[in-house]
From TrEMBL:
Membrane topology: Multi-pass membrane protein
UniProt similarity note: Belongs to the cytochrome ubiquinol oxidase subunit 1 family.
Record-linked InterPro entries: Cyt-d_ubiquinol_oxidase_su_1
Transmembrane segments: 15-36, 57-78, 98-121, 128-148, 192-211, 223-240, 326-347, 359-380, 408-432
Disordered: annotated span: 454-477
Compartment(s) of residence: Cell inner membrane; Cell membrane
Name under which the protein is recorded: Cytochrome ubiquinol oxidase subunit I
PANTHER family from the UniProt entry: CYTOCHROME BD MENAQUINOL OXIDASE SUBUNIT I-RELATED (PTHR30365:SF14), CYTOCHROME D UBIQUINOL OXIDASE (PTHR30365)
Pfam family for this entry, one: Cyt_bd_oxida_I
Keywords annotated in UniProt: Cell membrane, Electron transport, Heme, Iron, Membrane, Metal-binding, Transmembrane, Transmembrane helix, Transport
C-alpha cells in the first residue's frame, strides 16, 4: 500500500508523530515535578495537611505521565539508527555524547530518586523524601537541558570541524557546542512553556472541582496557585518568545520569513500579516489581513527598518511556509489567551471573586489542554521552519535519511500509529480519571493504593507473618 509513497516523507511523518506524542509528556512532567516539590516544601514549612493531600493527589498522575514519557522517548533513539542512519553517522560524534550525558545525568538522577519519591513517604524521613522530590524535579530539568542542547546545535551548529569522511567532529571546546547561539533562548522558552502547561492543567482540574463544589479547599488552592502562575509567567513567556524570535531572525532568517509570511522583501518597513493563505507556488499570501510596518517594529524595533523576504532565498532552500505560518499563529494566539486568563484571574482575585466567577472557571477548564497544543505548535514551527535542513545550512534532510524503501517505513509508521493510539489512549484516559476524582482530606498517595509491593509473578501477597508465625493485619496508613 506504500509502494507509490515517498520514503523521505514517510520517515519525516513517523518522526513527527512519535516526537509529538513524546513531547506531550515531558512538557507536563517537567512542570508537575516542580509543582510537587513546591507542594511538599509548603507542607514541611507550614505543617498544613492540605498541601500533603494535594501532593498525594498529583503524585499518582505524575507517575503515569512520567512513565509514558520515558517509554515514548526510548523510541526516538532507535529511529536515529533505523530511519536516519546517515544523520547518525554524520552527526553522531557531536550529538552522541550529548545524548549520553542526558542518560548519565538526568535519567540516572531521576531513576535513583523516583522510587523514594513515589513509595518512600512512610519509609524515610521527611527531609530525605523532600530531597528525593527535588532531585526528580532537577532531573527533569537536566534532561531538558541536554536534549534542547542537541536540538539547538542542529538549529545553529557551531564548535565542530568537518572530518575527511564528511562527519561532524567536535572541536576543541565542548562548551561552544553545548551553549550554541540558540540554546539559552530555546531552553528558557521551552522550560517556561512546560511550567505554563502544567499550570493550566492544574488550573483546569481545580476549576472542574470548583464547578462541582466551590467550597472544596483543595480545589480552591489548586486553582489559586495555577492562576498565580498564569498571571505571572504568561507575560514573561511572551517576552522570552520575543527574544527567541529575535535570535532566530539573526541565525535562521528564512524561518522567520516563513513565520511572518514575507515572500517579498520590504525595504521601507514590513507589514505584520495577521491572517492569510500562503501560496508558496505564487510566492504570496492571499487575502492577507495586515498591519502596515508592524513587523519591522516587532523584529527591528523600528517602523521603517527594512526586512528581507523569501525572494532572497533559493526556492529549494525555503521551508514549507503554510505549515510554519499557521503553527506560529496558533502558538502566539494561545500565548495571549493564557495571558488573558491570567489577567482575568487577577481581576477576580482583586474583587474577592476568584472562587465565585463561574465563567472564569469554565474558561480555565477549556484552556486546560492549551499548553499541550501550544508546545506542539511551537515544536512544529521550530522543526518545519528549519527545513530543508536537518543540520541547518550543512546537511539536508533528504541526504540524512536511511536508504529504506517506502513500504518498510510506511509499515513501521502504521504500526506506531496503532500501538501508540491504543496504549497512550488508555494511559491518558486513566490520568483523566484520576483528575476527575474529588481531592479530599487524608488523600492517599501511591503507597496507600496497596498493602504491600506488587510482585512481578503476579501473586498477591498474603498476610504478613510475624516471627512467631501468627498472621498480622496490614498496616494502617
Amino acid at each position: 500500500m506504500f509502494e507509490a509513497a515517498d520514503a523521505l516523507l514517510l520517515a519525516r511523518l513517523q518522526f513527527a508523530f512519535t516526537v509529538s506524542f513524546h513531547f506531550i509528556f515531558p512538557a507536563f512532567s517537567i512542570g508537575l515535578a516542580s509543582y510537587l516539590a513546591v507542594l511538599e516544601g509548603l507542607w514541611l514549612k507550614t505543617g498544613k495537611a492540605l498541601y500533603l493531600d494535594m501532593f498525594r493527589f498529583w503524585v499518582k498522575i505524575f507517575a503515569i505521565a512520567f512513565a509514558m514519557g520515558v517509554v515514548s522517548g526510548i523510541v526516538m533513539s532507535y529511529q536515529f539508527g533505523t530511519n536516519w542512519a546517515v544523520f547518525s553517522d554524520r552527526a553522531g560524534p557531536v550529538i552522541g555524547p550529548l545524548m549520553a550525558y542526558e542518560v548519565l545525568t538526568a535519567f540516572f538522577l531521576e531513576a535513583g530518586f523516583l522510587g523514594v519519591m513515589l513509595f518512600g513517604m512512610e519509609k524515610v524521613g521527611r527531609k530525605l523524601h523532600f530531597t528525593a522530590t527535588c532531585m526528580v524535579a532537577a532531573g527533569t530539568f537536566v534532561s531538558a537541558f541536554w536534549i534542547l542542547s542537541v536540538n539547538s546545535w542542529m538549529q545553529t551548529p557551531v564548535g565542530h570541524e568537518m572530518g575527511a569522511n564528511g562527519q561532524f567532529l567536535p572541536g576543541p571546546s565542548w562548551a561552544e557546542i553545548i551553549f550554541n547561539p540558540s540554546f539559552p533562548y530555546r531552553l528558557v522558552h521551552t522550560v517556561t512553556a512546560a511550567y505554563l502547561t502544567t499550570a493550566f492543567v492544574v488550573g483546569a482540574v481545580g476549576a472542574w472541582h470548583l464547578l462541582k463544589n466551590r467550597d472544596n479547599p483543595h480545589a480552591r488552592k489548586m486553582f489559586s496557585m495555577a492562576m498565580w502562575m498564569a498571571a505571572l509567567v504568561a507575560p514573561v513567556q511572551i517576552f522570552l518568545g520575543d527574544l527567541h524570535g529575535l535570535n532566530t531572525l539573526e541565525h535562521q532568517p528564512a524561518k522567520v520569513m516563513a513565520m511572518e509570511g514575507h515572500f517579498q522583501s520590504h525595504p521601507e518597513g514590513a507589514p505584520l500579516i495577521l491572517f492569510g493563505i500562503p501560496d508558496q507556488d505564487a510566492q504570496t499570501v492571499r487575502h492577507a489581513l495586515e498591519i502596515p510596518k508592524a513587523s519591522s517594529l516587532i523584529l527591528k524595533h523600528d517602523l521603517n527598518a527594512p526586512l528581507d523576504g523569501l525572494d532572497t532565498i533559493a526556492r529549494e532552500d525555503q521551508p514549507p511556509v503554510a505549515v510554519v505560518f499557521w503553527s506560529f499563529r496558533i502558538m502566539v494566539a494561545l500565548g495571549f489567551a493564557m495571558l488573558a486568563i491570567g489577567l482575568w484571574s487577577l481581576i477576580a482575585r482583586f474583587k474577592g471573586k476568584l472562587y465565585d466567577w463561574r465563567w472564569l472557571h469554565r474558561a480555565a477548564l477549556v484552556m486546560g489542554p492549551s499548553g499541550f497544543v501550544a508546545v506542539i505548535a511551537g515544536w512544529v514551527t521550530t522543526e518545519v521552519g528549519r527545513q530543508p535542513w536537518v543540520v541547518y545550512g550543512l546537511l539536508r534532510t533528504e541526504d540524512a535519511v536511511s536508504p529504506l524503501g517506502a513500504p518498510a517505513v510506511g509499515a513501521s509508521l502504521l504500526a506506531f500509529v496503532l500501538v501508540y493510539t491504543a496504549c497512550f489512549s488508555v494511559g491518558t484516559w486513566y490520568i483523566l480519571r484520576l483528575m476527575s476524582k474529588t481531592p479530599h482530606p487524608h488523600e492517599t498517595g501511591i503507597e496507600g493504593e496497596m498493602d504491600a509491593p506488587i510482585r512481578t509473578a503476579g501473586i498477591t501477597p498474603g498476610p504478613t507473618q510475624n516471627p512467631g508465625g501468627r498472621s498480622m493485619p496490614p498496616r494502617e496508613e
